[in-house]
Amino acid sequence: MNDIAVFGSSSSAGKSTITMLLLNILKQHNINALPFKAQNFSNNSTVADDNTEIAFAQYFQAKSVNLKTSRYLNPLLIKSGKNSHLHIIENGNFFGELSPIEYYNTIDTFKKTVENSYIRLKQEGIVVSEGAGSPTELNFLDRDLANTFIALNFKPKIVFVADIERGGVFASIFGTKELLKKIGLEISGVIINKFRGDIKLFNDGIKIIEKEFNIPIFGVLPYLELNVGFEDNLNTNNYIQHKKPIIKAGVYNFRYMSNYYDIEPLILDRNVEVSFFNNLNQADLFDVVVLPGSRQTVLDLLLIKKQDYKILKKTKIIALCGGYQMLFENIYDSIESDIKHTKGLGLIKGNVRFEPNKILKRSKYKIGSFEVNGFEMHYGKTDKLYFEDENIFGTFVHEALYNDDLRTCLLKKINPQYSPYNYKKAYKKHLAQFVENAKMNFYVDKLFKLL
After folding, report:
1. Is 409 part of the annotated catalytic residue set?
2. Residue 177 CA: distances (Å) to CA of 152, 209, 249
3. In Å, how far from its chain's centre is CA 157?
4. What is the side-by-side strand order in the sheet with 39-41?
């Protein structure tokens, strides 16, 4: 059977979500398929089941179809490094930091890593490979690992995702088709994504694309609510809440915010309204302030200290990983930044020291009286896995809020009227509803002709 490559008209066109959708459709028809992204630029990462670090998008895609995760799903992960360098994760572990020029000048050295991962996954089933940005950046074609390198070397069928919300959908489809043709590639099908309004209004558009462009349409997908699986901070603006909240949670929007999947249990919770903010003067508008992860803990700490951060002393706080580390008295860091020492927010006694060996571990943790499944992914070290007092709960453990009992305990301290819910059950229902709603406007028979 043919593999599939999911390319898009631009970043945030919906490639990650469409990849997840295709995996679910294939699974429903008893076809083994695995997600893959050769190179992902994202600060939103996680620990795979083999205790390596990969992009969250590929982890999310795999878990949506109950697959084990590993470094092979995302062999190259590029995060923001210090001094405008790229922090490179190869095969799930830290490779080094390079300037963008150095990285692209040596990119051929990473091609074997990508090839080996793809071949390894191919042994298990169909590979559904997610591209990056646009596949026709002409000045980067020879260095485009996620798009043209995969397409030319492994010959998958290309499904093109066109974001109609941004406009210019016909130009993006036709232009991409013609530019790909020049390098020996062709689009096998198009998915129109994020359509708002009556889809019947696009009937003539379907005819134009299929008859004049000679490309089949696989679906015209409406703009659908999906409050899980955020790939990057652009997507954090896309969630939808239908709530009568009794708790208002404000998530501080760090410049280098990362790993915001930790707050998905709050976004899905009908009793909690989630808002992002970056002005500490607004902190008293919320019942609880969430300090999420940060890819550049010290730099984000320095930015927050330019404001009147003492307001946090009077605020209920949930702090996770990077946000948790900021609460200590001192941070000593020669790993993520060149600022070897800075004063923390001073809300927790003790120091944080960054050490070269990054902790990457999935495990079961004891947090208070609760057994919590989660993972650690950090350079900073203290003697406190978690901290809790009357106003603060902080921990290194990602996915801690996925635990219903722990989360309920924390939210009841904020408002005793809070009513708990089952996060895993709500998550599965929400994801299943999205898949089924999307399938209503997806031509599954055309997809299977592609295979």
Report:
1. no
2. 15, 11, 45
3. 25
4. 39-41, 76-80, 86-90, 93-98
Query: What pairing do the DSSP bridges indicate for beta strands 328-332 and 341-343?
Result: antiparallel
Segment 192-218 shows an average pLDDT of 94
Query: What is the distance between the alpha carbons of residues 132 and 6, in angstroms, rounded to a whole number?
Result: 9
Q: Tokens at residue 303, please?
A: 């930015």
Q: Is residue 238 part of a domain?
A: no
321 among known catalytic residues? yes
User: If you average pLDDT over residues 419-424, what whole number do you get?
Assistant: 96
What mean pLDDT do residues 355-375 have? 96
Report the candidate in 439, 432, 436, 444 with the shortest Cα–Cα distance to residue 66: 432
* Residue span of the structural domain in which 216 resides: 4-228+431-450
Ramachandran angles phi, psi of 223, nearest 5°: -70, 110
Same domain, 125 and 36: yes
Q: Bridge-partner residues for 163, per DSSP? A: 193
Task: Give the residue-averaged pLDDT of 9-34.
Answer: 94
> Catalytic pick from 321, 341, 378, 409?
321
Residue 445 and residue 412 share a domain:
no
Task: Say whether pLDDT at 235 is over 60.
Answer: no
Question: Residue 63 belongs to a domain with what CATH number?
Answer: 3.40.50.300
Rounded to an integer, the average pLDDT of 100-117 is 96
DSSP 209: I
Element (H or E) spanning 151, and its range? helix 150-154
Q: Please tell me whether residues 159 and 260 are part of one structural domain.
A: no
Residues 39 and 137 in one domain: yes
pLDDT score at 237: 63
Four-point Cα dihedral 413, 414, 419, 423, nearest 10? -90
Q: Is residue 303 part of a domain?
A: yes
263 and 146 within one domain:
no
Query: What pLDDT is attached to residue 231?
Result: 66
In Å, how far are 44, 129, 189, 448 from 444, measured between CA atoms? 31, 18, 12, 7
Residue 369 has pLDDT above 70, yes or no: yes
Q: How many CB atoms lie within 10 A of CB 435?
A: 19
Would 423 be classed as within a structural domain? no
Could you give the percent of the chain with pLDDT greater than 70? 97
- Return d(Cα 253, Cα 257) in angstroms, integer: 6
For residue 338, what pLDDT is reported? Answer: 84
CA dist 145 and 108 (Å) reads: 9
How many structural domains compose the chain?
Answer: 2
Q: Is position 409 within any domain?
A: yes
Please pick, among 85, 87, 242, 398, the residue that the annotation labels catalytic: 398
